[in-house]
Amino acid sequence: MRLSSNNKYGRSSAILFTQTTLPDKFLLKLMVTIVLPFGLAILFITIVCIKFGPPCKCNVKDKSQIEVSKELRGGWCEFQRLHIQLEVKLGQGAFGEVYKGELKNEKGVMACAVKKLKEGATELERRDLINELNIMVTVGEHPNIVSLLGACTAGEPILVVVRLAENGCLLDRLRENRKNPYVNVGDKKATFTETDKVKIARDVASGMLHLSSKVCVHRDLAARNVLLGKNNVAMVSDFGLSRDIYESGAYEQMSGGRLPVRWMALESIEDYIYNVKTDVWAFGVVLWEIASGGKMPYSALKGPEILDFLNSGQRLKQPEGCSDDTYQIMVSCWKQDPSQRPLFGELEKIFDQKLQTKSGSLKDEIQEKDPVQ
Fold first, then answer.
1. How, if at all, do strands 252-254 and 234-236 pair?
2. DSSP-derived secondary structure letter, 35
3. Residue 225 near residue 240 (C-beta atoms within 8 A)
4. Closest C-alpha to 237, from 262, 272, 203
5. 204 in helix, strand or coil?
6. What residues have CB less than 8 Å from 126, skipping those under 6 apart?
7. Cα separation of 37 and 315, whole Å?
8. How far is CA 55 from the centre of its chain?
9. Which helix (H) or strand (E) segment is 252 a member of?
10. Strand pairing partners for 145?
C-alpha cells in the first residue's frame, strides 16, 4: 500500500507494506509428494555408497576378494603382511609352497613355517587353502599336530602361518638314517633308536586321536606328512584339504584319479570311503615305514596291482629288525573288516606303555653299568 500527502512543502509518498502472492497449492503438493522423497532417496544412496563402496567399480577380481573376506571371518590371528618374512623354501607340491619364515609380534620375533600358493594357482586351489585354514581353526592346538599360528588374508597371496618343525619331514629323516647307520660326527646325526621309534609312533597316534576327536579325517596319513619338531616330537601335518600331487611315486593313477594307494585301506581304494578306520589303516603303514627306515610300501607292485594283492589276503611283510609285537599291531590296523581295527585311543595307550617299559629298561641298564658306590 502506498500513502501520499500534499502540503506547502510539496508532495511526498511512502510504502507502508507489501503483499506477496502465495505459491500455488498444486505446486506445493507436487514438491511434497515427489521432490522431497526423491531427494531423500538420493541422500540414502549417497550414504550407502560412502560406507560400503560403489558396486559399479568392482571388477571380477574385486568381487572374489569381497567373497573371500566374508568367508574368512574365523577365529585365527590376522597378521599384517609386513610382519611376515619368508626365508628358505622348505618344500613344494604342484600348487603350494612352504617356506621357513619369521613372524614379528608383540612377543618379538619367532620362527615359523608359511604356506602359500604358487603363482598362477586356480581359484579352486585357492579355496582349498582357505579350506585348510578353516579346518586348522576348528582342530585347534595340540603338541602332536602342526598347529595354526595365524594367517594373512588381506590381499594376495593368502599366507597360512603354522608352527615350525625344526627337524623336518619324518620320511626324509628315516631315509637319511637308513643310508647312514652310524653316528655322523660332522653332522651330529645318529640313527633313531628303538625308543625314538616308539615315541614317534606314540606321538602320531596322539595327534590322530586329537584329529578324530574333532571329527577330522586326514585321508593322507603317511610318513611324508609327519614332521619333527624339537627333540623329534612328531607332528601330523597336511590334514583336511585337497592334497598337492607330488612327483615322488606316492600318488598313482587309478580310476578315481591320482591317489596314495599304498597307504589306503581296501574300502578307500574300492569305494572311496574315508573315515577314522581308514586313517587307522594308514597309521599301520606309517608304522611299517618307521620300522623299515622309510622304504616304499609294496615296492614290487604297481598301483592297480596293490588292490588284487590286498584282496588276496596278503599284507606288507614284517620289516627286518621289527619286533613281533610291533608287527602284530600293524596287522591289526590292516584288518579287512574296519570294525576289527583298533581305535587311535587304544593305539596311543599301547605305544605309551611300550615307551614306559623301554624307559624303565634303559634306567635299569644304566644302573647296572654304573652301580651306586
1. unpaired
2. I
3. no
4. 203
5. helix
6. 117, 158
7. 80
8. 32
9. strand 252-254
10. 236
- Please tell me whether residue 144 adopts helix, strand or coil conformation: coil
The grid coordinates of residue 342 equal: 583298533
Q: Do 232 and 167 form a contact (C-beta atoms < 8 A)?
A: yes
* Residues 162, 140 contacting (CB under 8 angstroms): no
> 2: which 3 cell numbers?
502506498
Residues 6 or more apart whose CB falls under 8 angstroms from that of 101 comprise: 84, 85, 86, 87, 111, 112, 113, 114, 161
Q: What backbone phi and psi angles, to 5 degrees, belong to 316?
A: -60, 140
Q: Judging by DSSP bridges, how do beta strands 159-162 and 108-117 pair with one another? A: antiparallel
Percent of the chain with pLDDT over 90: 49
Q: Render pLDDT for 347-358 as a digit per residue (tens, 0 to 9).
A: 999 999 999 987
- pLDDT greater than 90 at residue 252: no
Strands (E), 35-120: 84-92, 96-105, 108-117
Q: CB 363: neighbour CB atoms within 10 A?
A: 10
Q: Kindly state the cell numbers that stand for 281.
A: 589303516
The predicted-structure confidence for 43-65, as pLDDT tens digits, reads as follows 766 665 555 443 323 233 333 33
Question: Of 208, 229, 340, 197, whose CA–CA distance to 282 is shortest?
Answer: 208
Q: What is the pLDDT of residues 87-112, one digit of tens each?
A: 999 887 666 889 999 998 777 899 99
> 138 near 239, Cβ under 8 Å?
no
Residue among 263, 336, 367 at smallest CA distance from 306: 263
The Cβ of residue 357 has, within 10 Å, a number of other Cβ atoms equal to: 12
Q: What is the reported pTM?
A: 0.72
Based on the residue annotation, tell me whether 220 is a catalytic residue of this protein.
yes
Assess whether the previous peptide bond of 157 is cis (omega < 30° from 0).
yes
pLDDT at site 72: 45
If we measure between CA atoms, which residue out of 174, 179, 213, 215 comes closest to residue 196?
174
Point out which residues pair with 103 in neighbouring strands.
84, 110
Structure-block grid coordinates of residue 355 = 615307551
Catalytic choice (220, 238, 244, 279): 220
Amino acid identity of 28?
L
Cα 213 from chain centre: 17
Q: What's the pLDDT at 355?
A: 92
Model pLDDT for residues 22-37, shown as the tens digit of each residue: 455 666 665 656 666 6
